Amino acid sequence: MTSNRVIIAGGGIGGLATALTLHQIGVPCIVFEAVRDLRPLGVGINLQPNAVRELYDLGITRAELDRVGLPAKEWALVGLNGNDIYSEPRGLLAGYKWPQYAVHRGLFHMLLHEKVVERIGPDAVKLGSKVTGYRKNGDGSVSALVEHADGATTEAKGALLVGADGIHSSVRAQMHPAQPPIHWGGAVMWRGTTWGKPIRSGSSFVGLGTHRHRMVFYPISHPDPHTGLAMINWIAEVTMDNADGWKQSGWFRPVSTHEFIHHFESWIWDWLDVPALIRKADSAFENPMIDRDPVTTWRDGPVVLLGDAAHAMYPTGSNGGSQAIIDARVLGAAIVEHGVAPQALAAFDGKLCGPISQLILRNRGAGPFGLLNMVDERCGGTFDNIDDVIPPKERADFMAGYRAAAGFAMDTLNKAPQTIAAGARVGGVAASQHASA
Ligand SMILES: Cc1cc2nc3c(=O)[nH]c(=O)nc-3n(C[C@H](O)[C@H](O)[C@H](O)COP(=O)(O)OP(=O)(O)OC[C@H]3O[C@@H](n4cnc5c(N)ncnc54)[C@H](O)[C@@H]3O)c2cc1C
User: Fold this and answer.
1) Is residue 294 lining ligand 1, measured as CB closer than 6 Å?
2) d(CA 354, CA 352)
3) Is the Cβ atom of 219 under 6 angstroms away from ligand 1?
4) Which residue's CA is minimally distant from atom 17 of ligand 1?
5) Is residue 33 within 6 Å of ligand 1 at its C-beta?
6) 256-289 pLDDT, tens digit each
7) Cβ neighbours of residue 132 under 8 Å, at least 6 residues apart?
8) Does 411 score more than 90 pLDDT?
């Protein structure tokens, strides 16, 4: 075992971005991933400019991102009468130095995995290996307790353990045994993808409806040059009474569109036919909008949490995937500065745990969709001219507040130095080294 090896629990977006970052700065690592084989699961997610900058710094190119998604051009909220509530350009069009990408989560995940295998080796990610907990050793190291698909259990020793094992994290459960159960605020999302003609700018994120009853959709592929059709990601959402808690089994259930289409049957305009969009979907999934109450720290000695394990949040800000990537890079920068040591984890925790915990609560309050709440409160969702309901400056200030809190305020980001300077390395470790279990 290499003495400064880092063990990563979870090979999702956060875990793989961490592996690529550690490799870049010359630190050996190994990823334990619970599923037996990685498949391109999920539908659309957004990668904000702050995350795309980090992907570029990791050597992931624009051409590669264009294979799994497309640059976003616009973010818009539209009322049920079809009138615009708010719209703003996104990514390069807004003046960021980096684009925002709307990607297929599964394809993007596969791209990260391909890079890890190419750069670190085929044994870098151990599939069918669930981390069930950890033990802090007397010599300052940590052992991850691993349960394999064949039922065997082993231990893997490392200098640090990164819990990137998602919202149901075992590492977090051990770190915070008294944490409350998953929090569900009453919103249910049905998600799917349908091939269709992109509207507005051709790459617009559109939020349509009211705070408690809405539809979000955006393309996640470039249009087919022959048909003009792109893969449209959609999320149909209704908020219901949550007094009895979530009663369905599981958190991501395949569903028939018949189970929810009645909520949207009348949503037909000359520019959009929502029931047709839903009906033509290849498949649909139901998942409640859930998160976890923030915790006071993401660290326990040589163990740290990142990504959804640290800060599962409502997807209202479209920044869960982006934040997992930022976490990986901020952790890498702390390791460059402090070495492969608990001090690096303390620096990472000190920098992000407080502000990102605030963001979890902010997203609970609807995140940027809070504008829909304001429209509901002020005019019951019906208006002719949005300026009479929320003046332009108030709308712009509201959105600027959200961007600043989520870490993608444009001027700050454009001027910020690289999170990890090009060529930065942790002293004396060859980048090609990696350890096996
Ligand atoms: C299958 C899947 C589909 C998703 N689809 C969407 C979507 O369509 N839209 C969206 O906005 N978000 C989706 N998400 C969530 C989104 O990917 C995350 O919010 C975000 O990318 C943060 O990533 P993460 O790596 O922290 O967590 P995750 O993406 O949840 O990754 C965690 C990884 O850890 C693995 N794991 C879990 N427990 C253990 C354990 N004990 N030991 C080892 N490995 C473990 C999981 O299998 C998973 O690969 C999905 C997540 C998953 C896992």
Assistant:
1) no
2) 6
3) no
4) 321
5) yes
6) 999 999 999 999 999 999 999 999 998 899 989 8
7) 145, 146, 147, 153, 170
8) no
